[in-house]
Design goal:
- The protein is mainly α.
- It has a domain of 32 residues.
- Helices cover 61% and strands 0% of the residues.
Length: 61
């Protein structure tokens, strides 16, 4: 090296991005979607049952 050249600094290698979830986030998301669909279907079935009961009672009176 000569006196006029700047010193080269060696940078450490950049850290690698390593996934920490192993795809479990995607599985959890699918589980949430499935659970919401089950709750929506169950709520609609309960509402239909109540509507049916009120309509049967209303026709008797």
């Amino acid at each position: 090296m000569t006196m006029n050249e700047p010193e080269r600094q060696v940078r450490p290698p950049a850290p690698r991005v390593v996934p920490t979830t192993n795809g479990s986030e995607e599985r959890k998301e699918r589980g949430v979607v499935r659970r919401v669909l089950v709750y929506v279907v169950a709520a609609h079935l309960a509402a239909f049952y109540l509507w049916l009961m009120f309509s049967v009672i209303g026709n008797r009176g």
